[in-house]
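Need a sequence for this fold. Nothing fancy.
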């Protein structure tokens, strides 16, 4: 029922095509390999291979799609584990249908999408984790001053155009900085870099 509902909602947008649906994690990974979608909406609790494992397997694929968790569970450990596994977002199934289409478009552009509840849990969990702070500060110690400024912007969820405006750089230059920051930090996407920015204390709200 949920899949039919999502297919109806997303299919109503002219610029979105629902490529496939799957009902367990292993089938989801196989569907990604077959269809090469831009965005995957992933539940966490499924039979067989769970959503977290499926996210990790998808992130190991060449040129992987953006994965957004869409689930009924927004507990701290699920939010952090999903984002650290490589998801670019975490939404609850109570997300209003009219918002879902826009959020899928945002995720397709490589930006982070978080439900309000997930965002609150993420900030609280990050601020309480001493080991995460220590590791993040160690990682960011290898960045130049400009790279740290770019990382702080990623922590605020800013797009390249906004980063360019703030730092008085061209978008092409910002894109290069973002790539170097992700490489130095060992991050697979901007969302993971944003987590490190918060853990290291270099990003604002």
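Here you go.
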């Amino acid at each position: 029922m949920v899949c039919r509902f999502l297919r109806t909602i997303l299919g109503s947008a002219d610029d979105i095509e629902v490529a496939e649906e799957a009902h367990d994690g292993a089938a989801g990974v196989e569907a990604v390999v077959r269809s090469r979608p831009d965005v995957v909406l992933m539940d966490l609790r499924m039979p067989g291979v769970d959503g977290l494992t499926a996210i990790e397997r998808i992130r190991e694929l060449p040129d992987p799609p953006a994965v957004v968790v869409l689930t009924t569970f927004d507990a701290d450990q699920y939010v952090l584990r999903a984002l650290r596994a490589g998801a670019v977002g975490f939404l609850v199934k109570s997300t209003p249908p009219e918002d879902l289409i826009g959020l899928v478009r945002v995720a397709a552009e490589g930006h982070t999408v978080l439900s309000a509840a997930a965002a609150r849990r993420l900030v609280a969990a990050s601020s309480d984790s001493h080991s995460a702070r220590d590791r993040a500060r160690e990682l960011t110690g290898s960045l130049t001053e400009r790279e740290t400024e770019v990382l702080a912007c990623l922590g605020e969820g800013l797009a390249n155009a906004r980063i360019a405006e703030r730092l008085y750089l061209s978008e092409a230059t910002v894109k290069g900085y973002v790539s170097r920051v992700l490489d130095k930090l060992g991050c697979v996407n901007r969302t993971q870099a944003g987590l490190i920015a918060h853990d290291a204390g270099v990003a604002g709200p």
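For context: The chain has a mean pLDDT of 86.
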